[in-house]
TrEMBL record:
A divalent metal cation binds at residues 18-19, 110. One of its GO terms (biological process) is mismatch repair. NCBIfam families: PRK00015.1-3 (NF000595). This is Ribonuclease HII. Endonuclease that specifically degrades the RNA of RNA-DNA hybrids. Gene3D superfamilies: Ribonuclease H-like superfamily/Ribonuclease H. It comes from Epilithonimonas hominis. Keywords: Cytoplasm, Endonuclease, Hydrolase, Manganese, Metal-binding, Nuclease. The keyword Metal-binding applies. Its EC number is 3.1.26.4. It is an enzyme of class 3 (hydrolase). It is found in: Cytoplasm. Its main location: cytoplasm. The keyword Hydrolase applies.
Length: 198
């Protein structure tokens, strides 16, 4: 496992931000912000996409107990449809930052886009969740939160297979959309009709 950087600046209080659910057809977009310090150990913390469900669930508790501060925010499919997924993703990061009790002095963002936040400097980092601990921790909290939410929604709408695809565009999800159509949790501004072999 590649060792992640604990800090970008070694000087400022840094908040790492990441989001999950941008490419989904259903469910909210979720973002997290996490502040760690030099005492925060990597353990298995890494880009959430490289970790299995059980490891992520265990790391979730470690992050919550050992981070200096953390926060999670979500925005609904309705907000996504009204403002587009990019703006919704960035706004969700702002909402997560709003909830931090510790004010960051530098914001590290996974990806290449961000809207300035409260006059705090920010730095966009491509694949930042595989480079910096704070961003990786944010990716884990956001993914766990969203996956658990989609599993709950699966109990309400089991035909779409959200307990395994979590709202992403899989063949199971596509076939269910062809058969049942979208429901209240689908993003109406996304392309929801697919030609698939049934």
């Amino acid at each position: 496992m590649i060792e992640l950087y604990n800090s970008f600046s070694n000087t400022y209080i840094e908040a790492g931000c990441d989001e999950v659910g941008r490419g989904c057809l259903a469910g909210p977009v979720v973002a997290a912000a996490v502040i760690v310090n030099k005492n925060f150990k990597q353990n298995l913390v890494n880009d959430s996409k490289t970790l299995n469900f059980k490891i992520r669930q265990n790391l979730d508790l470690y992050i919550r107990e050992n981070a200096v501060d953390f926060a999670i925010a979500e925005l609904s499919p309705e907000f996504i449809d009204e403002h587009n997924i990019l703006n919704a993703s960035l706004h969700a990061m702002h909402l997560a930052l709003d909830q931090l009790k510790t004010r960051p002095e530098l914001i590290l963002v996974d990806g290449n886009r961000f809207h300035p936040y409260n006059y705090i400097p920010h730095h966009c980092i491509i694949k930042g969740d595989s480079k910096y601990l704070s961003i990786a921790a944010a990716s884990i909290l956001a993914k766990n939160y969203r996956d658990n939410l989609m599993i709950k929604l699966h109990n309400e709408f089991p035909e779409y297979g959200w307990n395994t695809n979590f709202g992403y565009c899989t063949k199971t999800h596509q076939k269910a959309l062809k058969k049942y159509g979208p429901n209240i949790h689908h993003r109406k501004s996304f392309r929801l009709e697919y030609d698939v072999e049934i």
